[in-house]
Amino acid sequence: MPPPLLIDLPGYAFEMILVHGGAFRMGSPEGAEGAYDDEYPAHDVTVKDFYLGRYPVTQALWRAVALAVPEFGLEPDPSGFKGDERPVENVSWNDIKKKFLPAIEKLTGRSFRLPTESEWEYAAQGGPYHAEGYQYAGSDKLREVGWYDDNSGNETHPVGLLYPNALGLYDMSGNVWEWCEDDWHSNYEGAPDDGSAWIERPERGGRRVRRGGSFFYGPQFCRVAYRLNDYPATRHDGGGFRLASPFQSG
Q1: For residue 21, which of 48, 96, 170, 203 is within the disulfide window of CB 3.0 to 4.6 Å?
Q2: pTM over 0.90
Q3: What residue segments make up the domains of the chain, in order of their start?
Q4: 145 within 8 A of 137, measured Cβ to Cβ
Q5: What is the C-alpha separation between 76 and 162, in angstroms, rounded?
């Protein structure tokens, strides 16, 4: 596995994992226990190489960007549960797309984005190491890899305290929901098979995709295949995100 990409910011540094692309089966097989209708039909998707944050974006990372480039108007401390290494929450899809991403790109000179829904699921499954077929990101025992309603004490926790998945990614099940780039669709009929974001054009759909579950949800909602949706202006204490970045060879 290649070494992580280290991104240095003023007063803070964070790691991104190179996720080698490949083909995988997205969604739940027909009749899977606990699956919902929007997880069907299972379908083959081929994902290209990309980088993904080792952890969800932390409050310290969010604050470092907000303070370094204040002209974007980011609230430096939006989270309800305070702690530098806890995931940032109470941030909307709009906050991320319209403010945070342009700010961190200006600060670093590097391109960042939200992961597509298929990239997110591929990475949560373990990317090219997904043969384990775990129900959660790195284990069939959620307590080993995720903070959820039975072990969280009804609050978020600092990232990286539990076990990672095969790619070395932490907290992809539980802790906070993670925004994806895609518009919400109620099932996978007509979904792209190339790893790209599924976007309604010319007008974007009203809701966006969230994945991964959170600290106040039960195990069935923290499964790798589970899907949630919300309006892009929504903020709440169970909602955060993880950074993606295009792979650049050479």
Answers
A1: 48
A2: yes
A3: 10-246
A4: yes
A5: 27
